[in-house]
Amino acid sequence: MADLLSVIKRDFDEFHSSGKIERAKALTRITGMHMNHNEYPEYFFGDLNAKFVLVHLMPKQNDNLDATYQGELKFQDFTDYVMYYQHFGENHYGKSLKNRRKSIFDTKQVHFIRPFNALNLSADDEFVNLQCVIDDKLQLELVPFGSSSFKTDLMTHEALQTYIELLLDTIIKTDRDYVIFCGKIFESLLRAHIVKKEDYSFKLIKTDGSLSKNNAKFSRLILRYKGQEFKAGIAHSFAQQGLTGAVMEDYGKKCCERYDQ
Fold first, then answer.
1. Distance in angstroms (rounded) separating the CA atoms of residues 74 and 82
2. CA 205, 118, 256 angle in degrees (round to 5)?
3. What are the angstrom distances between the C-alpha of 246 and each of 113, 123, 140?
4. 242: left (phi over 0), alpha (psi -120 to 50) or beta
5. Core-most of 13, 39, 64, 141, by most CB within 10 Å?
């Protein structure tokens, strides 16, 4: 993982010395979309060598309009920073913590991933599951700089090419069982690397047993990067509002079935 970690270290060192990251400011200028250049970047969460990879667009943060970072530095050094994100789940949901709070987003990930049977999820301890779903998989962020929203019309392949390449380079560093990109926009962002794509559309089972009015969508892909081909999927409907709990679990089940075909 030297390439990813070297990029992160450059950003980390610049941030610790100046309270800002020029690459984030440049991306704001290129896209016209605000990026927090004055907050710690969040490239990944969990195990860099995990068999299950879930890719999201960017960290959700309130827009910070300050010129530089204003708080106390959270990490002593780069090793401390990397260890924090490798054990992010334990740091937020570990048994030693008081006043643990369940994240809606992380709970959604538990429901989506459970049908893949790729993680050792518990049947009855939600906090064990929340820790596991972060620390035992690899979560990658396409753009590591937070923002209050992701304006897909501004985020083109041209603007994000170096970020896409770093993402793919990280994924192919080791064998993966599942690689899932969350969001319809990845269909266009990955287009140059798609060798084969099969699209699926299906109803989901609601909590009352009826079928959803609208179809959920998933795409199974073969991607090629640096001469290496690998299987992946696009969970188009992952971020859809109302797709939670048992309904999200049904979505994960149907995505898994199509991924494994």
1. 12
2. 40
3. 12, 14, 25
4. left
5. 39
Encode pLDDT of 163-177 as tens digits: 999 999 999 999 999
Neighbouring CB atoms inside 10 A of 214's CB total 11
Domain ranges of the chain: 2-59+75-259
Facing residues of 53 across strands? 138, 179
CATH of domain 2-59+75-259: 3.40.470
**Tokens linked to 247:** 């309904």
The predicted-structure confidence for 93-148, as pLDDT tens digits, reads as follows 998 888 889 999 999 999 999 999 999 987 788 999 999 999 999 999 999 999 99
pTM above 0.85, yes or no: yes
Q: Alpha-carbon distance 145 to 28, whole Å? A: 10
**What would the 3-class secondary structure string for the chain be?**
CHHHHHHHHHHHHHHHHHCCCHHHHHHHHHHCCCCCCCCCCCCEEECCCCCEEEEECCCECCCCCCCCCCCCCCCCCHHHHHHHHHCHHHHHHCCCCCCCCCCHHHHHHHHHHHHHCCCCCCCCCHHHHHHHHHHCCEEEECCCCCECCCCCCCCCHHHHHHHHHHHHHHHCCCCCCEEEEECCCHHHHCHHHEEEEEEEEECCECCCCCECCCCEEEEEEEEEECCEEEEEEEECCCCCCCCCHHHHHHHHHHHHHHHCC
Amino acid at 128: V
Whether 220 contacts 231, CB under 8 Å? yes
Distance CA 98, CA 225 (A): 44
